Amino acid sequence: MQLSNDEIRRYSRHLILPEVGLAGQKKIKSTSVLCIGAGGLGSPIAMYLAAAGIGKLGIVDFDAVDFSNLQRQIIHGTQDVERPKADSARETINGINPNVEVVLHKTRLTSENAMEIIAPYDIVVDGTDNFPTRYLTNDACVLLKKPNVYGSIFRFEGQASVFAPHLGGPCYRCLYPEPPPPGMVPSCAEGGVLGVLPGIIGCIQATEILKLALGKGSSLINRLMLFNALDMKFRELKLRRDPGCPICGDQPTVKELIDYEVFCGIPEASAEPESNPDEVTVQEMKKALEDPKLGIRVIDVREPDEFEIAHVQGVPQIPLSQIQERFTELDPNQTYYLHCKSGVRSMKALNFLREQGYKYLKSVKGGILAWAEEIDPGVPKY
Asked: Are 286 and 343 a contacting pair, CB within 8 Å?
């Protein structure tokens, strides 16, 4: 594989590195990478790999660009809002380096298609934000003997590693044998994320990919790198393969892809989801606020910073983080409608209060986002 004169000029700062040189740049050009997700992590990964001259870059993403993405997903711009992320990502990559072959997989990665999608690529990079896809990516990579360059982010903290049992290291299941219970770990939409954090972790993942392509340096195989942006500290944990791991252990029991939604405890979505008896709609919340005779009080369980961004007039606040200390402020004989941003934390608050003996509780489905969508468009979404 040869480099054109234009490519030699483009990659000149690589070519003068003894560790890269012409031979190394040709290795980079001959490498194919599958990036699962074109969001916070996928943005810097794809952009830097394109700039570095990766020959083939696959993008797996079925989502559309939202305004809330723009704070960190730098591969997309304001003009891309509501466009498919895969299309926006390809346009940006082509603008950075037209020599890169971009292959779009505008679909959700599933147990049915993962092996077929991943098989043609040399390296897989995990830019996902949910546990079913992480376990699916891990298992497919183990079965196909592909390096899985892992990264994850939340609030101010991130972590990265390279999972590659075929190269002597552990897999994701060796580190996390079981997923956390559903709802236990808040998503970035619920907990927030510092906008530059995925740039830092994504660049580390891109670095690991280039090192794998070059066969140079000491990779994150057998190591988990932890980063705290608030403290500006990096820490490292040593990892080792678990002989009892169900997919990469000495006697594996997982020999094909499974149903990862079920594995992670996520109920199967139906065409018409059943109504939850513990939930009420924002229309019912509106009636409760408008008619005091109903005897229903509404409580906002979001955090103070969120309350300042957007709130419903007249609704008091008891943050979920304070509810263990403050639940005695509530009357056990009173009916309460609890609301949060989308309905996740209000359900957690409901379950906690029920354990304390409170009986008359409902969680508002969709939270303040549904209120802004269906009741009051003047309430900002965040």
From this structure: no
